[in-house]
Design brief:
The chain is mainly β. About 5% of the residues lie in helices and about 40% in strands. The strands form two sheets. Strands 1, 3, 4, 5, 6 and 7 form a six-stranded antiparallel beta sheet that branches. A two-stranded antiparallel sheet has the order 2-8. About 10% of the residues are buried.
Amino acid sequence: MQRPFFIQRGFDITLFYQGTINLDIAPYSFKLQLPSLHFPQVKWSSDFPPENFSFYPCTISESRGSEEYNALVYWPHPSTKPDFHQKAGVLEVLSTKIPFISYGSSIFIRAQKRHILFNSTE
């Protein structure tokens, strides 16, 4: 439902598969740093107040050293979405259709530290 509102703001989200990869990185944690895209106050629904969205570049691969697919972490800011709580350690990722991903797949995610910091919680 948000797609047309991002397109209006210059982000051609139609390049991505229509849906997110919900990636649980536990036992690791993450800290979002500098987004590559930020859209404040997107009024995408008459039922909800405007929301802020940020997107962080990353890559996804099936295993270390295998082909990497460009992707974006999709982050609806919790401060503008108070009734929705994402489980800690879960990232929502947008990408093109990736052939090896299905429910329960194990994958690798990488990002430059200026965009996303990954930390071990062990």
